[in-house]
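Example 3.2
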Amino acid sequence: MPSPTQNPHFEINGYRARAQIGCAPDEHGVTQETIVDLRVNLFFDPALYLDRYEMPYDYLQALDAITTTVAEGHHILQESMALKIARRVLESEHVESVDVRIRKTERYEGVESIGFFTHVDRDLLMKVDAVARGRAQAGA
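Structure, written as tokens:
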């Protein structure tokens, strides 16, 4: 049971897609099953609990973030794919942070999946963006 001080969240569990993902040469130009789980952590808003058609946050935006990111084409790393999904979800002013879990189910024999989990908030996005700008300026 969540603590009474924990902000509400929406979950998307087991979103399955054929994604172009992987850095190994044999992963280029092919798709593999990828499963995405999201936990969209919202800022507290009492209006969330009102039974009405105007929702403070539409969780379909989170589904769209996954679909759009998968459709972009080849993703080298699960880590960067997770960040791209989270960045899109965080475009909503109602979202405080996002937990993203990505799993590739077909890459290795003998395991159910190989995956990556991350908690992303706006502070992490600013740090990642700063590192990317520094590398671009350094020509790396």
